[in-house]
Amino acid sequence: MYQALYRKWRPMTFSDVVGQPQVTDTLKKQVASGRLSHAYLFTGTRGTGKTTCAKILAKAANCENPRGGEPCNECPSCAGINSGAISDVIEIDAASNSGVDNIRTIRDQTAFSPVETRMRVYIIDECHMLSGGAFNALLKTLEEPPSHVLFILATTELHKVPATILSRCQRFSFRRIGAKSIANRLSEIAESENITLAEPAAALISRLADGGMRDAISMLDQIAAATDAPIGENEVLAALGLAGENDTLAIAKAIEAHDAKSALDFLAALYSGGRDISSFLGELSLLFRDVLIMKTTCDSGLLSGAYTTGDISAFALTPARLLSILGAIGDTQVKIQRSVNVHLDSELLLIILCDEALGDGIAGLSARLERLENTAKSGGFAKIQNVQPPTQAAAPVSPCAAKLPAEGAPPWESPVENAADSYNEAPSWEDVPDKPSSEKIPTAENSAEPQPEAPKSVPDGGWWQAVLSAVRGKLSMSVYSQLATQKTPYLDGDRLCIYAASEFSKKMLASHAVVSEIESAATAQLRTPVKCSIMLAGEKPSEPKDDGLDKLKKLAEKFDNLIIE
Fold this sequence. Notes:
The protein is α/β, with parallel strands linked by helices. It folds into four domains: 5-174, Rossmann fold (3-Layer(aba) Sandwich); 179-240, Orthogonal Bundle (Helicase, Ruva Protein, domain 3); 245-354, Zinc Finger, Delta Prime, domain 3; 390-431 and 455-565, DnaA, N-terminal domain (GMP Synthetase, Chain A, domain 3), CATH 3.30.300.180. The chain is built from 24 helices and eight strands. The strands form two sheets. The protein has a five-stranded parallel sheet with strand order 2-3-4-1-5, covered by helices on one side. A three-stranded mixed sheet has the order 6-7-8. Strand 6 and strand 7 (495-500) form a beta hairpin. Helix 3 packs antiparallel against helix 4, helix 8 (179-192) packs across helix 10 and helix 9 packs parallel to helix 11. The radius of gyration is 45 Å and the shape is elongated.
Protein backbone atom coordinates (compact mmCIF):
# COMPACT_ATOMS: atom_id res chain seq x y z
CA MET A 1 0.00 0.00 0.00
CA TYR A 2 1.28 3.45 -0.94
CA GLN A 3 2.41 5.56 2.00
CA ALA A 4 2.09 9.34 1.84
CA LEU A 5 5.39 11.15 1.53
CA TYR A 6 4.90 13.21 4.70
CA ARG A 7 4.54 9.97 6.68
CA LYS A 8 7.34 8.20 4.89
CA TRP A 9 9.74 11.10 5.43
CA ARG A 10 8.78 11.93 9.00
CA PRO A 11 12.01 12.66 10.98
CA MET A 12 13.27 9.79 13.13
CA THR A 13 15.80 11.76 15.20
CA PHE A 14 16.11 15.29 16.53
CA SER A 15 18.79 16.00 13.91
CA ASP A 16 16.32 15.25 11.12
CA VAL A 17 13.89 17.93 12.30
CA VAL A 18 14.21 20.98 10.07
CA GLY A 19 14.09 24.56 11.29
CA GLN A 20 13.59 24.00 15.04
CA PRO A 21 17.08 24.07 16.63
CA GLN A 22 15.82 25.98 19.69
CA VAL A 23 13.72 22.92 20.55
CA THR A 24 15.78 19.96 19.38
CA ASP A 25 19.07 21.12 20.88
CA THR A 26 17.52 21.60 24.33
CA LEU A 27 15.72 18.26 24.28
CA LYS A 28 18.89 16.40 23.24
CA LYS A 29 20.81 17.92 26.14
CA GLN A 30 18.07 17.01 28.61
CA VAL A 31 18.01 13.41 27.40
CA ALA A 32 21.80 13.12 27.45
CA SER A 33 22.05 14.54 30.98
CA GLY A 34 19.07 12.61 32.31
CA ARG A 35 17.22 15.78 33.35
CA LEU A 36 13.93 15.16 31.63
CA SER A 37 10.90 16.99 32.96
CA HIS A 38 7.68 15.21 33.84
CA ALA A 39 5.52 17.39 31.52
CA TYR A 40 6.14 19.27 28.26
CA LEU A 41 3.94 21.60 26.23
CA PHE A 42 4.72 22.02 22.52
CA THR A 43 3.07 24.99 20.79
CA GLY A 44 3.17 26.28 17.21
CA THR A 45 1.37 26.31 13.88
CA ARG A 46 0.47 23.19 11.96
CA GLY A 47 3.13 21.10 10.29
CA THR A 48 6.09 22.48 12.23
CA GLY A 49 7.09 19.25 14.02
CA LYS A 50 5.27 19.22 17.38
CA THR A 51 3.94 15.66 17.26
CA THR A 52 7.09 14.45 15.52
CA CYS A 53 9.32 15.81 18.27
CA ALA A 54 6.98 14.31 20.90
CA LYS A 55 7.44 10.85 19.40
CA ILE A 56 11.20 11.30 19.10
CA LEU A 57 11.32 12.41 22.76
CA ALA A 58 9.31 9.31 23.76
CA LYS A 59 11.83 7.11 21.92
CA ALA A 60 14.82 8.93 23.40
CA ALA A 61 13.42 8.61 26.95
CA ASN A 62 13.03 4.83 26.51
CA CYS A 63 15.98 4.12 24.21
CA GLU A 64 18.34 1.42 25.45
CA ASN A 65 21.31 2.84 23.53
CA PRO A 66 20.92 6.63 23.27
CA ARG A 67 23.60 8.46 21.28
CA GLY A 68 24.17 12.01 22.44
CA GLY A 69 20.54 12.41 23.38
CA GLU A 70 19.31 10.86 20.12
CA PRO A 71 17.34 7.60 19.95
CA CYS A 72 19.14 4.75 18.23
CA ASN A 73 16.04 3.55 16.32
CA GLU A 74 17.44 0.02 16.55
CA CYS A 75 16.66 -1.28 20.03
CA PRO A 76 13.36 -3.07 20.73
CA SER A 77 11.92 0.02 22.42
CA CYS A 78 12.66 2.34 19.49
CA ALA A 79 11.51 -0.21 16.94
CA GLY A 80 8.29 -0.87 18.84
CA ILE A 81 7.52 2.84 19.19
CA ASN A 82 8.19 3.42 15.47
CA SER A 83 5.83 0.60 14.52
CA GLY A 84 3.21 1.53 17.14
CA ALA A 85 3.43 -1.85 18.84
CA ILE A 86 4.51 -0.49 22.25
CA SER A 87 1.44 0.02 24.46
CA ASP A 88 3.33 2.16 26.94
CA VAL A 89 3.46 5.12 24.51
CA ILE A 90 -0.13 6.37 24.18
CA GLU A 91 -1.12 9.08 21.70
CA ILE A 92 -4.47 10.71 22.42
CA ASP A 93 -6.47 13.07 20.19
CA ALA A 94 -8.03 15.56 22.58
CA ALA A 95 -10.55 16.65 19.94
CA SER A 96 -12.34 13.29 20.24
CA ASN A 97 -11.36 12.50 23.85
CA SER A 98 -12.13 15.79 25.54
CA GLY A 99 -14.32 14.65 28.42
CA VAL A 100 -13.64 14.21 32.11
CA ASP A 101 -14.00 10.43 31.90
CA ASN A 102 -11.21 10.18 29.34
CA ILE A 103 -8.81 12.04 31.63
CA ARG A 104 -9.91 9.97 34.63
CA THR A 105 -8.98 6.85 32.69
CA ILE A 106 -5.50 8.27 32.05
CA ARG A 107 -5.16 9.22 35.72
CA ASP A 108 -6.04 5.70 36.81
CA GLN A 109 -3.58 4.13 34.35
CA THR A 110 -0.66 6.18 35.65
CA ALA A 111 -0.65 4.11 38.84
CA PHE A 112 0.56 1.08 36.91
CA SER A 113 4.18 0.61 35.89
CA PRO A 114 5.04 0.37 32.19
CA VAL A 115 5.19 -3.12 30.72
CA GLU A 116 7.76 -2.94 27.91
CA THR A 117 9.62 0.34 28.46
CA ARG A 118 11.14 2.35 31.27
CA MET A 119 8.57 5.15 31.07
CA ARG A 120 4.91 5.40 30.20
CA VAL A 121 4.46 8.38 27.80
CA TYR A 122 1.15 10.16 27.17
CA ILE A 123 1.09 12.38 24.04
CA ILE A 124 -2.07 14.53 24.11
CA ASP A 125 -2.45 16.23 20.74
CA GLU A 126 -4.54 19.42 20.36
CA CYS A 127 -4.85 19.61 24.13
CA HIS A 128 -6.72 22.94 23.92
CA MET A 129 -9.79 20.93 22.92
CA LEU A 130 -10.09 19.44 26.42
CA SER A 131 -13.07 20.63 28.42
CA GLY A 132 -12.72 22.68 31.58
CA GLY A 133 -13.55 19.69 33.72
CA ALA A 134 -10.99 17.55 31.91
CA PHE A 135 -8.28 20.13 32.52
CA ASN A 136 -9.19 20.22 36.20
CA ALA A 137 -9.05 16.44 36.41
CA LEU A 138 -5.58 16.48 34.84
CA LEU A 139 -4.09 19.15 37.12
CA LYS A 140 -2.97 17.09 40.09
CA THR A 141 -1.66 14.20 38.03
CA LEU A 142 0.17 16.58 35.70
CA GLU A 143 1.82 18.37 38.62
CA GLU A 144 2.98 15.27 40.54
CA PRO A 145 2.86 12.21 38.28
CA PRO A 146 4.64 8.96 39.19
CA SER A 147 8.32 8.85 38.27
CA HIS A 148 7.65 6.44 35.40
CA VAL A 149 5.12 8.75 33.64
CA LEU A 150 5.88 11.47 31.06
CA PHE A 151 3.24 13.86 29.68
CA ILE A 152 3.74 15.65 26.35
CA LEU A 153 0.97 18.08 25.35
CA ALA A 154 0.76 19.69 21.90
CA THR A 155 -1.47 22.55 20.76
CA THR A 156 -1.86 25.06 17.95
CA GLU A 157 -3.90 27.49 20.10
CA LEU A 158 -1.92 28.29 23.21
CA HIS A 159 -4.34 30.98 24.40
CA LYS A 160 -6.99 28.32 25.03
CA VAL A 161 -4.82 26.38 27.48
CA PRO A 162 -5.47 27.34 31.14
CA ALA A 163 -2.70 29.07 33.02
CA THR A 164 -2.80 26.30 35.63
CA ILE A 165 -1.71 23.84 32.95
CA LEU A 166 0.96 26.17 31.52
CA SER A 167 2.59 26.60 34.92
CA ARG A 168 3.02 22.84 35.31
CA CYS A 169 4.78 22.25 31.98
CA GLN A 170 8.00 23.15 30.23
CA ARG A 171 6.88 25.08 27.17
CA PHE A 172 8.62 24.90 23.78
CA SER A 173 7.53 27.15 20.91
CA PHE A 174 7.88 25.81 17.39
CA ARG A 175 8.53 28.49 14.76
CA ARG A 176 7.43 28.60 11.18
CA ILE A 177 10.06 26.93 9.05
CA GLY A 178 11.92 29.18 6.63
CA ALA A 179 11.17 28.91 2.92
CA LYS A 180 14.79 28.14 2.09
CA SER A 181 14.93 25.27 4.60
CA ILE A 182 11.71 23.82 3.22
CA ALA A 183 12.98 24.09 -0.37
CA ASN A 184 16.20 22.25 0.52
CA ARG A 185 14.27 19.49 2.25
CA LEU A 186 11.92 19.14 -0.74
CA SER A 187 14.89 18.81 -3.07
CA GLU A 188 16.32 16.01 -0.91
CA ILE A 189 13.01 14.14 -0.86
CA ALA A 190 12.46 14.61 -4.60
CA GLU A 191 15.93 13.28 -5.38
CA SER A 192 15.39 10.21 -3.22
CA GLU A 193 11.96 9.55 -4.78
CA ASN A 194 13.26 10.03 -8.36
CA ILE A 195 11.14 13.13 -8.84
CA THR A 196 12.55 15.86 -11.09
CA LEU A 197 11.91 19.07 -9.17
CA ALA A 198 13.23 22.40 -10.48
CA GLU A 199 14.57 24.88 -7.96
CA PRO A 200 11.99 27.59 -8.85
CA ALA A 201 9.23 25.03 -8.32
CA ALA A 202 10.66 24.02 -4.93
CA ALA A 203 10.87 27.68 -3.94
CA LEU A 204 7.26 28.26 -5.02
CA ILE A 205 6.02 25.26 -3.02
CA SER A 206 7.93 26.41 0.05
CA ARG A 207 6.29 29.85 -0.16
CA LEU A 208 2.84 28.33 -0.53
CA ALA A 209 3.43 26.07 2.48
CA ASP A 210 3.57 29.16 4.74
CA GLY A 211 6.15 27.71 7.11
CA GLY A 212 4.65 24.20 7.38
CA MET A 213 6.89 21.31 6.35
CA ARG A 214 4.03 18.81 6.28
CA ASP A 215 2.03 21.05 3.92
CA ALA A 216 5.02 21.39 1.60
CA ILE A 217 5.63 17.63 1.40
CA SER A 218 1.91 16.99 0.85
CA MET A 219 1.86 19.47 -2.05
CA LEU A 220 4.93 17.83 -3.58
CA ASP A 221 3.19 14.46 -3.32
CA GLN A 222 0.07 15.83 -5.04
CA ILE A 223 2.01 17.54 -7.84
CA ALA A 224 4.15 14.49 -8.50
CA ALA A 225 1.03 12.35 -8.85
CA ALA A 226 -0.57 14.85 -11.25
CA THR A 227 2.21 14.90 -13.85
CA ASP A 228 4.97 12.67 -15.18
CA ALA A 229 6.91 15.59 -16.61
CA PRO A 230 9.62 17.43 -14.71
CA ILE A 231 8.01 19.66 -12.10
CA GLY A 232 8.36 23.37 -12.84
CA GLU A 233 6.43 26.44 -11.74
CA ASN A 234 3.69 25.94 -14.34
CA GLU A 235 3.12 22.36 -13.21
CA VAL A 236 2.85 23.53 -9.60
CA LEU A 237 0.30 26.21 -10.50
CA ALA A 238 -1.72 23.86 -12.70
CA ALA A 239 -1.81 21.03 -10.14
CA LEU A 240 -2.77 23.28 -7.23
CA GLY A 241 -5.22 25.46 -9.21
CA LEU A 242 -3.38 28.70 -8.57
CA ALA A 243 -2.86 31.89 -10.56
CA GLY A 244 0.64 32.60 -11.77
CA GLU A 245 2.74 35.56 -10.77
CA ASN A 246 2.15 37.23 -14.14
CA ASP A 247 -1.63 36.93 -13.84
CA THR A 248 -1.62 38.32 -10.31
CA LEU A 249 0.64 41.19 -11.34
CA ALA A 250 -1.63 41.98 -14.30
CA ILE A 251 -4.72 42.22 -12.09
CA ALA A 252 -2.84 44.32 -9.53
CA LYS A 253 -1.75 46.71 -12.30
CA ALA A 254 -5.36 47.01 -13.46
CA ILE A 255 -6.43 47.86 -9.90
CA GLU A 256 -3.72 50.51 -9.70
CA ALA A 257 -4.89 52.02 -13.00
CA HIS A 258 -8.59 51.94 -11.92
CA ASP A 259 -9.25 49.72 -14.96
CA ALA A 260 -12.17 47.56 -13.84
CA LYS A 261 -12.73 46.02 -17.27
CA SER A 262 -9.21 44.63 -17.55
CA ALA A 263 -9.29 43.33 -13.98
CA LEU A 264 -12.59 41.53 -14.58
CA ASP A 265 -11.31 40.08 -17.87
CA PHE A 266 -8.26 38.59 -16.13
CA LEU A 267 -10.44 37.22 -13.34
CA ALA A 268 -12.84 35.64 -15.85
CA ALA A 269 -9.90 33.92 -17.55
CA LEU A 270 -8.67 32.54 -14.22
CA TYR A 271 -12.14 31.40 -13.22
CA SER A 272 -12.81 29.65 -16.53
CA GLY A 273 -9.40 27.99 -16.22
CA GLY A 274 -10.47 26.38 -12.95
CA ARG A 275 -8.21 28.43 -10.70
CA ASP A 276 -9.15 28.61 -7.03
CA ILE A 277 -10.53 32.05 -6.17
CA SER A 278 -9.56 31.85 -2.51
CA SER A 279 -5.95 31.04 -3.41
CA PHE A 280 -5.92 33.85 -5.96
CA LEU A 281 -7.05 36.34 -3.32
CA GLY A 282 -4.29 35.07 -1.05
CA GLU A 283 -1.71 35.68 -3.79
CA LEU A 284 -3.12 39.14 -4.51
CA SER A 285 -3.01 39.99 -0.82
CA LEU A 286 0.60 38.78 -0.60
CA LEU A 287 1.57 40.99 -3.55
CA PHE A 288 0.01 44.14 -2.10
CA ARG A 289 1.54 43.27 1.26
CA ASP A 290 4.99 43.23 -0.32
CA VAL A 291 4.28 46.56 -2.02
CA LEU A 292 3.21 48.08 1.31
CA ILE A 293 6.31 46.74 3.08
CA MET A 294 8.55 48.19 0.37
CA LYS A 295 6.75 51.57 0.49
CA THR A 296 6.96 51.90 4.26
CA THR A 297 10.32 50.28 5.11
CA CYS A 298 12.32 50.07 1.84
CA ASP A 299 13.68 46.77 3.23
CA SER A 300 13.66 43.98 0.64
CA GLY A 301 14.63 41.49 3.34
CA LEU A 302 11.06 41.56 4.68
CA LEU A 303 9.50 40.64 1.34
CA SER A 304 7.93 37.25 0.75
CA GLY A 305 10.17 36.51 -2.21
CA ALA A 306 7.27 35.62 -4.48
CA TYR A 307 7.91 38.68 -6.68
CA THR A 308 11.01 40.50 -7.77
CA THR A 309 11.99 43.80 -6.23
CA GLY A 310 11.59 45.46 -9.62
CA ASP A 311 7.98 44.29 -9.96
CA ILE A 312 7.13 45.54 -6.48
CA SER A 313 8.89 48.90 -6.87
CA ALA A 314 6.96 49.60 -10.10
CA PHE A 315 3.73 50.21 -8.16
CA ALA A 316 2.93 53.86 -7.36
CA LEU A 317 0.16 53.17 -4.85
CA THR A 318 0.07 55.21 -1.64
CA PRO A 319 0.30 53.41 1.73
CA ALA A 320 -3.24 54.58 2.57
CA ARG A 321 -4.70 52.97 -0.54
CA LEU A 322 -2.64 49.82 0.01
CA LEU A 323 -4.06 49.48 3.51
CA SER A 324 -7.56 49.94 2.13
CA ILE A 325 -6.97 47.30 -0.55
CA LEU A 326 -5.58 44.78 1.93
CA GLY A 327 -8.52 45.36 4.27
CA ALA A 328 -11.06 44.83 1.47
CA ILE A 329 -9.33 41.63 0.32
CA GLY A 330 -9.23 40.30 3.87
CA ASP A 331 -12.96 40.98 4.36
CA THR A 332 -13.76 39.19 1.11
CA GLN A 333 -11.61 36.18 2.06
CA VAL A 334 -13.67 35.81 5.22
CA LYS A 335 -16.94 36.34 3.33
CA ILE A 336 -16.35 33.75 0.60
CA GLN A 337 -15.92 30.99 3.18
CA ARG A 338 -19.70 30.96 3.58
CA SER A 339 -20.70 32.48 0.24
CA VAL A 340 -22.89 30.74 -2.32
CA ASN A 341 -21.38 32.70 -5.24
CA VAL A 342 -17.64 33.11 -4.81
CA HIS A 343 -17.17 34.38 -8.38
CA LEU A 344 -19.63 37.24 -7.87
CA ASP A 345 -18.04 38.23 -4.56
CA SER A 346 -14.60 38.36 -6.17
CA GLU A 347 -15.94 40.46 -9.07
CA LEU A 348 -17.53 42.94 -6.67
CA LEU A 349 -14.23 43.12 -4.81
CA LEU A 350 -12.30 44.04 -7.96
CA ILE A 351 -14.87 46.67 -8.95
CA ILE A 352 -14.61 48.32 -5.52
CA LEU A 353 -10.81 48.12 -5.57
CA CYS A 354 -10.77 49.85 -8.97
CA ASP A 355 -13.12 52.58 -7.72
CA GLU A 356 -12.96 52.85 -3.94
CA ALA A 357 -15.65 55.54 -3.92
CA LEU A 358 -18.17 52.74 -4.54
CA GLY A 359 -17.40 51.17 -1.18
CA ASP A 360 -19.72 51.74 1.77
CA GLY A 361 -17.06 51.70 4.48
CA ILE A 362 -14.48 54.16 5.73
CA ALA A 363 -12.36 53.60 2.62
CA GLY A 364 -15.26 54.53 0.35
CA LEU A 365 -16.02 57.65 2.37
CA SER A 366 -12.35 58.66 2.30
CA ALA A 367 -12.23 58.20 -1.47
CA ARG A 368 -15.30 60.38 -1.95
CA LEU A 369 -13.88 63.08 0.32
CA GLU A 370 -10.58 62.98 -1.55
CA ARG A 371 -12.46 63.38 -4.82
CA LEU A 372 -14.25 66.45 -3.44
CA GLU A 373 -10.96 67.92 -2.22
CA ASN A 374 -9.39 67.45 -5.64
CA THR A 375 -12.40 69.11 -7.26
CA ALA A 376 -12.11 72.06 -4.89
CA LYS A 377 -8.37 72.44 -5.55
CA SER A 378 -8.95 72.46 -9.30
CA GLY A 379 -11.58 75.19 -9.03
CA GLY A 380 -14.43 72.91 -10.02
CA PHE A 381 -16.80 74.35 -7.43
CA ALA A 382 -16.13 77.91 -8.62
CA LYS A 383 -17.03 76.89 -12.14
CA ILE A 384 -20.25 75.34 -10.92
CA GLN A 385 -21.18 78.46 -8.94
CA ASN A 386 -20.53 80.71 -11.93
CA VAL A 387 -23.07 78.85 -14.03
CA GLN A 388 -26.21 81.02 -14.02
CA PRO A 389 -29.61 79.84 -15.23
CA PRO A 390 -30.95 81.50 -18.36
CA THR A 391 -32.60 84.86 -17.92
CA GLN A 392 -36.35 84.88 -17.63
CA ALA A 393 -36.84 87.62 -20.22
CA ALA A 394 -39.67 85.74 -21.81
CA ALA A 395 -41.20 83.18 -19.52
CA PRO A 396 -41.62 79.74 -21.07
CA VAL A 397 -45.02 79.05 -22.47
CA SER A 398 -46.51 76.21 -20.49
CA PRO A 399 -49.52 74.26 -21.73
CA CYS A 400 -51.56 76.19 -19.20
CA ALA A 401 -50.26 79.59 -20.26
CA ALA A 402 -50.74 78.73 -23.92
CA LYS A 403 -54.48 78.76 -23.31
CA LEU A 404 -54.53 82.28 -21.85
CA PRO A 405 -56.45 84.88 -23.87
CA ALA A 406 -54.76 86.94 -26.53
CA GLU A 407 -52.88 90.13 -25.66
CA GLY A 408 -55.12 93.01 -24.70
CA ALA A 409 -58.04 90.91 -23.36
CA PRO A 410 -58.45 90.25 -19.64
CA PRO A 411 -57.79 86.59 -18.82
CA TRP A 412 -61.11 86.10 -17.04
CA GLU A 413 -63.06 86.76 -20.25
CA SER A 414 -61.78 83.44 -21.71
CA PRO A 415 -61.46 80.98 -18.82
CA VAL A 416 -58.81 78.28 -19.10
CA GLU A 417 -60.03 74.74 -19.15
CA ASN A 418 -58.31 72.09 -17.02
CA ALA A 419 -55.53 74.45 -15.98
CA ALA A 420 -54.55 72.26 -13.05
CA ASP A 421 -54.01 69.27 -15.35
CA SER A 422 -51.08 71.00 -16.99
CA TYR A 423 -49.21 71.77 -13.77
CA ASN A 424 -47.00 68.71 -13.99
CA GLU A 425 -45.86 69.77 -17.45
CA ALA A 426 -43.79 72.65 -16.13
CA PRO A 427 -41.14 73.82 -18.59
CA SER A 428 -37.44 73.30 -17.96
CA TRP A 429 -34.55 75.74 -18.29
CA GLU A 430 -33.88 74.44 -21.78
CA ASP A 431 -37.23 75.84 -22.89
CA VAL A 432 -36.34 79.42 -21.91
CA PRO A 433 -35.44 81.65 -24.88
CA ASP A 434 -31.98 83.19 -24.94
CA LYS A 435 -33.26 86.74 -25.50
CA PRO A 436 -36.00 88.65 -23.69
CA SER A 437 -39.36 88.88 -25.38
CA SER A 438 -40.45 92.32 -26.57
CA GLU A 439 -44.16 91.84 -25.98
CA LYS A 440 -45.91 94.84 -24.51
CA ILE A 441 -47.57 95.03 -21.13
CA PRO A 442 -51.23 94.05 -21.48
CA THR A 443 -53.75 96.45 -19.91
CA ALA A 444 -57.16 95.98 -18.39
CA GLU A 445 -59.10 97.54 -21.29
CA ASN A 446 -58.72 96.62 -24.93
CA SER A 447 -59.24 100.10 -26.37
CA ALA A 448 -57.79 101.99 -29.29
CA GLU A 449 -56.27 104.62 -27.00
CA PRO A 450 -52.51 104.35 -26.55
CA GLN A 451 -51.50 102.64 -23.32
CA PRO A 452 -49.09 104.23 -20.86
CA GLU A 453 -45.57 103.03 -21.50
CA ALA A 454 -43.28 101.51 -18.92
CA PRO A 455 -40.61 103.77 -17.49
CA LYS A 456 -37.81 104.44 -19.91
CA SER A 457 -35.28 103.02 -17.44
CA VAL A 458 -36.88 99.59 -17.92
CA PRO A 459 -36.96 98.23 -21.51
CA ASP A 460 -40.42 97.79 -22.93
CA GLY A 461 -41.60 94.30 -22.05
CA GLY A 462 -38.71 93.65 -19.65
CA TRP A 463 -40.29 94.97 -16.47
CA TRP A 464 -41.36 91.49 -15.25
CA GLN A 465 -37.88 90.07 -15.76
CA ALA A 466 -36.50 93.00 -13.76
CA VAL A 467 -38.98 92.13 -10.98
CA LEU A 468 -37.84 88.51 -11.04
CA SER A 469 -34.20 89.57 -10.83
CA ALA A 470 -35.01 91.79 -7.85
CA VAL A 471 -36.80 89.07 -5.84
CA ARG A 472 -34.31 86.34 -6.68
CA GLY A 473 -32.28 85.57 -3.59
CA LYS A 474 -34.99 86.92 -1.32
CA LEU A 475 -37.34 84.03 -1.98
CA SER A 476 -36.71 80.31 -1.54
CA MET A 477 -35.71 78.40 -4.65
CA SER A 478 -38.97 76.44 -4.72
CA VAL A 479 -41.09 79.62 -4.56
CA TYR A 480 -38.89 81.42 -7.08
CA SER A 481 -39.12 78.51 -9.56
CA GLN A 482 -42.92 78.63 -9.32
CA LEU A 483 -42.91 82.38 -9.87
CA ALA A 484 -40.44 82.24 -12.78
CA THR A 485 -42.48 79.72 -14.74
CA GLN A 486 -45.63 81.88 -14.83
CA LYS A 487 -46.69 83.81 -17.92
CA THR A 488 -46.06 87.57 -17.80
CA PRO A 489 -48.66 88.81 -15.30
CA TYR A 490 -51.62 90.93 -16.30
CA LEU A 491 -51.43 94.57 -15.14
CA ASP A 492 -54.87 96.07 -14.41
CA GLY A 493 -54.24 99.65 -13.38
CA ASP A 494 -52.40 99.35 -10.09
CA ARG A 495 -53.39 95.69 -9.72
CA LEU A 496 -50.74 93.09 -10.68
CA CYS A 497 -52.54 89.80 -11.40
CA ILE A 498 -50.36 86.69 -11.28
CA TYR A 499 -52.05 83.52 -12.50
CA ALA A 500 -50.97 80.24 -10.91
CA ALA A 501 -51.26 76.94 -12.76
CA SER A 502 -52.71 75.05 -9.79
CA GLU A 503 -53.96 75.40 -6.23
CA PHE A 504 -50.57 74.17 -4.98
CA SER A 505 -48.75 76.90 -6.87
CA LYS A 506 -51.27 79.49 -5.71
CA LYS A 507 -50.73 78.58 -2.04
CA MET A 508 -46.97 78.91 -2.42
CA LEU A 509 -47.15 82.33 -4.06
CA ALA A 510 -50.00 83.81 -2.00
CA SER A 511 -48.14 84.00 1.31
CA HIS A 512 -47.79 87.49 2.78
CA ALA A 513 -43.98 87.47 2.61
CA VAL A 514 -43.93 86.49 -1.08
CA VAL A 515 -46.60 89.00 -2.07
CA SER A 516 -44.81 91.80 -0.17
CA GLU A 517 -41.54 91.11 -2.00
CA ILE A 518 -43.29 91.09 -5.39
CA GLU A 519 -45.20 94.32 -4.66
CA SER A 520 -42.03 96.06 -3.51
CA ALA A 521 -40.04 95.01 -6.59
CA ALA A 522 -42.88 95.81 -9.02
CA THR A 523 -43.44 99.24 -7.46
CA ALA A 524 -39.75 100.04 -7.86
CA GLN A 525 -39.70 98.95 -11.49
CA LEU A 526 -43.00 100.53 -12.63
CA ARG A 527 -42.55 103.64 -10.43
CA THR A 528 -46.12 103.48 -9.26
CA PRO A 529 -47.74 101.75 -6.29
CA VAL A 530 -48.73 98.21 -7.20
CA LYS A 531 -50.95 95.71 -5.41
CA CYS A 532 -50.38 92.01 -6.15
CA SER A 533 -53.12 89.40 -6.49
CA ILE A 534 -52.50 85.65 -6.86
CA MET A 535 -55.29 83.70 -8.54
CA LEU A 536 -55.92 80.66 -10.67
CA ALA A 537 -55.91 81.00 -14.45
CA GLY A 538 -59.36 82.02 -15.65
CA GLU A 539 -60.35 83.51 -12.30
CA LYS A 540 -61.57 87.14 -12.32
CA PRO A 541 -59.97 89.40 -9.70
CA SER A 542 -62.34 90.59 -7.03
CA GLU A 543 -62.93 94.26 -6.42
CA PRO A 544 -60.91 95.66 -3.55
CA LYS A 545 -62.88 95.93 -0.38
CA ASP A 546 -63.46 99.43 0.98
CA ASP A 547 -62.81 99.25 4.70
CA GLY A 548 -63.94 101.80 7.29
CA LEU A 549 -60.67 103.75 7.24
CA ASP A 550 -61.08 104.55 3.54
CA LYS A 551 -64.60 105.84 4.18
CA LEU A 552 -63.34 108.12 6.94
CA LYS A 553 -60.60 109.45 4.69
CA LYS A 554 -63.17 110.27 1.97
CA LEU A 555 -65.35 112.01 4.55
CA ALA A 556 -62.40 114.03 5.84
CA GLU A 557 -61.79 115.39 2.36
CA LYS A 558 -65.06 117.38 2.66
CA PHE A 559 -63.87 119.17 5.77
CA ASP A 560 -60.81 121.35 5.79
CA ASN A 561 -60.21 121.17 9.52
CA LEU A 562 -60.58 117.36 9.85
CA ILE A 563 -57.40 115.31 9.67
CA ILE A 564 -57.41 111.47 10.00
CA GLU A 565 -54.17 109.65 10.43
